[in-house]
């Protein structure tokens, strides 16, 4: 193991390789020992307690909020409302229509209205009870159909019909494509709203230094710099007055890619109280903060030739977005954009509608925007394959993209494409041809196999907040102690980015990873990073780290050459040592560092990276969404057992192949792919938020059914390496792309087992049982009808 | 709410603390003793992140009254590396990537520790049963099972 094999005090040591090695997390020991400090764990001397009062109405006009009695309660140090904020916020610069505390109107049950800071919980709770609200109710809408109906009251003044964004995208001649098809099929799919469910509760600690007028915020964010911007905007501060730190983070999955209301509320409370405020949300409040994957209706029409080749795609998607814009317009654009770049398409038509409703706002969640449409698309490929008598793998192979590089109809750039290898791998590993149709079945328990493909971006090629800066910047510091410090704004949210960046730097310099320390996500120290979203970190920050390390290596090689009085080209670099090629002249690491610091002192080197223009999408409206420097690809086979008496589906095993370009850390790639597939399983089988009149029914981790270890299957991961030309060492993303394939592969496996297609997620036992019963009734009716219409046998005389 | 003087034995150290009758063990561990390795991930008894050992049995500190464990042996995640070295189980969670974001990990490790004290070489089914009250949102549990198996195999 690398872990404890390295001694730093030695002479000419061999070069150490890091990329491609199964590498435990560099911060893993902190996690398994309980030493890792998450936001709520940070030492903090007698902070004030923050609490939020939330709306019990789903929609209403705020006529007045009286906080005088609350402020008068002993121990209460601050009471704030929406009127105390300087501006609205939102993750998309052109769609900022949310205030951290509601102003003028409330738009969902649970929306924050008032916040207090007090010396203890009792005083804070008493203050919330003492607030007097005067809110006049308005009609509220809990489905896209209701809010889009004629005559519905508008949630937002600028959005008639309660449509946040309508997308119309047409590529090629869809009608001609459908006319040329041998089989045209149209289906509708109903997909659940799901929630991230990271285990860490939300928490923020904000400290206001009155004398210096400075704000320090420690928070649970995936994108610290954007929180930084929104703190400045909502509090009316200069950005230079603010420091944002992200400590250890207990999962993200998209919940924390947007700046969230409680973070800005805590900061405002700290300033109002002139001190330090700690605000921890309950699990119920985390559900209300939401930003999950929206409930989605998909209508999909596909044209296919007898060969399995797709001729045209016609898709309509309606998303129930919740009360505010959030990431909504990006989500609805992703749903259209990522119809492409998995297969070669003849023509496509996309109509997308993002509706406002009086529910907690949806946002980005792992697999952003593409999970629901992929469920529909792959489910239909499976159905059409059966109708045409084709194998499920054969249908996918009939639509592979060729040649590579390829530019899709909607101007996405595909530079590497491991899907064919993924298909081969899972076909073989699952024993598809040998086992399909021959699985053992007990009475009432039927087994089936299903498969599906999927893909995802390795970072959005254009960031949501476009400034012209590079996509990623890394700073390296090398000092007298011979240690290298990596300074990065990249958020490790559990995916292992801190480890990956360390590996990349170590690999370039051929040094042991123990030479390298990494300091991340403190705006006072680390360079800005666009954050952990759209699986951008490995690709973009990895590339910046690679370039920074190359820069440092150049400086060190030059220093060694100077010391040995040769030219840099004559130096052979071996990490802990280097020497002159073909001689026995050798310098050890300490000597090289010493020479490099002469006259210059501490070395600091910067590396940066940006996506090439050709990967940034086309020129049409919304073209940037879906564009990426590298698509990942995945194929998976799911084996299920369906209990026909209970409707219970048990996933027996999953085989998944993921094209991550190059596995910089194969151990972490496996972990990420397993986590993604498993999250797809939760969405497909059991997870669903549910509301009654806007009140969430399942705002806890018992009723919101994430799979436990008991129902979680073995997931065999096969890594496919297509060596992307732009990725660092050829690497692409590994954390999201395998998620999308699970739901349709599961649906196909259920069909294989019991012959039913249920175009709904999640496929809970009650839904499956109802479908099984319905079919039984239909079969009986058919039998009765057949019996009735049978000609009577003439009597024998 | 009245307070009482409580003598708690946590990680082999005896503490005398004045706590409210209704104080929860998790709050005493985290706030009074600074043992922040024990995590709160829910509103009470949902997720298992706060699992600690009471007389070798896994218990949820977020729904356990501190007053109720007086005289018992309380162990938290910090105890497993109390002597400066990770336990075998912790090492396996680290090396086999049984942890990603790490937030459920202390509870998961303590639940697994309780199992291994009871069953030296558990089957996958026994591991699943023992950890069924501990939610993880990152790993899909595959590498958690491998971690526990690897630790058990070496002990057997």
Overall shape of chain B = globular
Q: What helical percentage do the residues of chain A reach? A: 25-40%
Helix content of chain B: 25-40%
Give the H and E element order of chain B.
Answer: EEHEEEHHHH
Q: What is the domain tally of chain B?
A: 2
Q: Strand fraction band of chain A? A: 15-25%
Gyration radius of chain A, in Å: 29 Å
Stated plainly, the CATH topology of the largest domain in chain A is called: Aldehyde Oxidoreductase, domain 4
Under CATH, the homologous superfamily of the largest domain in chain A reads Aldehyde oxidase/xanthine dehydrogenase, molybdopterin binding domain
List unreliable stretches of 5+ residues of chain B: none
CATH superfamily of the largest domain in chain B: Beta-grasp domain
Top-tier CATH class of the largest domain in chain B: Alpha Beta
The CATH topology label of the largest domain in chain B is: Ubiquitin-like (UB roll)
Tally of DSSP helical segments of chain B: 5
> What is the average per-residue confidence, as pLDDT of chain A, rounded to a whole number?
96
Strand content of chain B: 15-25%
The total beta strand count of chain A reads 30
Give the N-to-C terminal Cα separation of chain B: 49 Å
Tell me what the structure shows.
Chain A has 797 residues and is α+β, with helices and mostly antiparallel strands. Chain A folds into three domains: 28-40 and 465-610, 2-Layer Sandwich (Aldehyde Oxidoreductase, domain 4); 48-138 and 200-250 and 256-289, 2-Layer Sandwich (Aldehyde Oxidoreductase, domain 4); 295-461 and 616-766, Aldehyde Oxidoreductase, domain 4, CATH 3.30.365.10. Chain A contains 19 helices and 30 strands. Chain A has a seven-stranded mixed beta sheet, with helices on both faces. In chain A, strands 7-15-14-13-8 form a five-stranded mixed beta sheet. A four-stranded mixed beta sheet of chain A has the order 18-26-27-30, with helices on both faces. Mean pLDDT of chain A is 96; it is low at 1-11. In chain B, 33% of the residues lie in helices and 17% in strands. Chain B has five helices and five strands. In chain B, strand 3 and strand 4 (57-60) form a beta hairpin. In chain B, helix 2 (88-95) packs antiparallel against helix 5. Chain B is globular and about 45 Å long. The interface between A and B is large, with 57 and 53 residues.
């Amino acid at each position: 193991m690398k872990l404890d094999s390295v001694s730093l005090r030695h002479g000419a040591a061999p070069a150490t390789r890091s990329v491609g090695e199964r590498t435990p997390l560099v911060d893993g020991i902190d996690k398994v020992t309980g030493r890792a400090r998450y936001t709520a764990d940070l030492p903090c001397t007698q902070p004030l307690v923050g609490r939020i009062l939330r709306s019990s109405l789903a929609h209403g006009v705020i006529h007045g909020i009286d906080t005088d009695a609350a402020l008068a309660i002993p121990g209460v140090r601050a009471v704030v409302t929406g009127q105390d904020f300087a501006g609205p916020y939102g993750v998309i610069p052109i769609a900022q229509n949310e205030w951290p505390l509601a102003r003028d109107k409330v738009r969902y049950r649970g929306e924050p209205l008032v916040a207090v800071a007090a010396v203890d919980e009792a005083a804070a709770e008493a203050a919330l009870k003492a607030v007097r609200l005067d809110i006049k109710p308005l009609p509220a809408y809990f489905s896209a159909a209701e809010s889009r109906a004629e005559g519905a009251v508008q949630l937002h003044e600028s959005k008639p019909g309660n449509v946040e964004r309508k997308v119309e995208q047409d590529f090629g001649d869809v009608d001609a494509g459908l006319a040329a098809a041998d089989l045209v099929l149209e289906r509708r799919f109903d997909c659940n709203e799901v929630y991230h469910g990271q285990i860490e509760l939300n928490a923020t600690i904000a400290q206001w230094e009155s004398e210096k007028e400075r704000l320090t915020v420690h928070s649970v964010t995936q994108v610290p710099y954007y929180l930084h911007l929104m703190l400045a905007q909502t509090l009316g501060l200069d950005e230079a007055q603010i420091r944002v730190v992200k400590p250890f983070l207990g999962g993200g999955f998209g919940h924390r890619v947007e700046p969230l209301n409680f973070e800005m509320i805590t900061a405002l409370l700290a300033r109002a109280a002139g001190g330090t405020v700690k605000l921890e949300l309950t699990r119920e409040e985390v559900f209300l903060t939401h930003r999950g994957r929206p409930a989605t209706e998909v209508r999909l029409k596909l044209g296919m030739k007898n060969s399995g080749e797709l001729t045209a795609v016609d898709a309509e998607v309606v998303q129930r977005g919740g009360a505010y814009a959030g990431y909504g317009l990006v989500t609805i654009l992703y749903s259209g954009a990522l119809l492409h770049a998995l297969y070669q398409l003849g023509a496509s038509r996309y109509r997308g509608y993002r509706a406002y409703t009086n529910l907690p706002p949806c946002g980005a969640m792992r697999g952003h925007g593409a999970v629901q449409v992929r469920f529909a698309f792959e489910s239909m490929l499976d159905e059409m394959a059966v109708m045409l008598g084709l194998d499920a793998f054969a249908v996918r192979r009939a639509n592979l993209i060729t040649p590579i590089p390829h530019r899709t109809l909607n101007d996405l750039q595909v530079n590497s494409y491991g899907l064919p290898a993924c298909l081969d791998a899972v076909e073989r590993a699952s024993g598809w041809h040998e086992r399909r149709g021959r699985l053992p079945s007990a009475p009432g328990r039927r087994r089936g196999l299903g498969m599906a493909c999927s893909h995802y971006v390795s970072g959005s090629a254009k960031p949501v907040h476009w400034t012209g800066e590079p996509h990623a910047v890394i700073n390296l510091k090398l000092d007298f102690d011979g240690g290298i410090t990596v300074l990065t704004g990249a958020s490790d949210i559990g995916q292992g980015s801190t480890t990956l960046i360390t590996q990349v730097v170590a690999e370039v310099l051929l040094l042991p990873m123990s030479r390298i320390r990494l300091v991340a996500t403190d705006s006072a120290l680390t360079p800005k990073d666009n954050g952990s979203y759209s699986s951008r970190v490995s690709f973009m920050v990895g590339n910046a780290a690679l370039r920074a390390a190359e820069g440092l290596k150049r400086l060190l090689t030059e220093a060694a050459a100077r010391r040995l009085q040769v030219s840099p080209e004559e130096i052979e670099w071996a990490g802990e040592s280097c020497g002159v090629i073909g001689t026995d002249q050798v310098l050890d690491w300490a000597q090289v560092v010493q020479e490099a610091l002469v006259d210059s002192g501490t070395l600091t080197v910067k590396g940066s990276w940006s996506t090439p223009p050709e990967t940034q999408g086309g020129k049409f409206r919304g073209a940037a969404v879906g564009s990426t420097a590298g698509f990942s690809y995945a194929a998976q086979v799911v084996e299920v057992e369906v209990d026909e008496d209970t409707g219970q589906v048990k996933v027996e095993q999953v085989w998944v192949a993921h094209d991550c370009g190059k596995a910089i850390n194969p151990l972490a790639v496996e972990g990420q792919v397993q986590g993604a597939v498993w999250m797809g399983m939760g969405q497909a089988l059991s997870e669903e938020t549910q509301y009654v009149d806007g009140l969430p029914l399942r705002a806890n981790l018992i009723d919101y059914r994430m799979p436990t270890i008991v129902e979680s299957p073995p997931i065999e991961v096969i890594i496919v390496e297509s060596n992307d030309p732009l990725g660092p060492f050829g690497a692409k993303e590994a954390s999201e792309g395998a998620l999308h394939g699970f739901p349709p592969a599961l649906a196909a496996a259920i069909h294989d087992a019991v012959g039913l297609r249920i175009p709904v997620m999640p496929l809970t036992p009650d839904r499956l049982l109802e479908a099984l019963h319905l079919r039984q009734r239909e079969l009986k009716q058919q039998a009765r009808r057949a019996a009735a219409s049978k000609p009577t046998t003439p009597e024998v005389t | 709410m009245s307070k009482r003087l409580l003598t708690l034995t946590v990680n082999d150290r005896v503490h005398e603390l004045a706590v409210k009758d209704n104080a929860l063990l998790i709050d005493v561990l985290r706030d009074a003793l600074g043992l922040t390795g024990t995590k709160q991930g829910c509103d009470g008894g949902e997720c298992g992140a706060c699992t600690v050992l009471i007389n070798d049995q896994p218990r949820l500190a977020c729904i356990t009254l501190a007053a109720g464990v007086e005289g018992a042996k309380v162990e938290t995640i910090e105890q497993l590396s109390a002597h400066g070295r990770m336990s075998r189980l912790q090492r396996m969670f680290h090396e086999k990537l049984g942890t990603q974001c790490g937030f459920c990990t202390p509870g998961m490790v303590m639940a697994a520790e309780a199992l291994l004290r009871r069953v030296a070489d558990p089957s996958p089914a026994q591991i699943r049963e023992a950890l069924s009250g501990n939610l993880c949102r990152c790993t899909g549990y595959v590498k958690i099972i491998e971690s526990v198996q690897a630790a058990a195999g070496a002990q057997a």
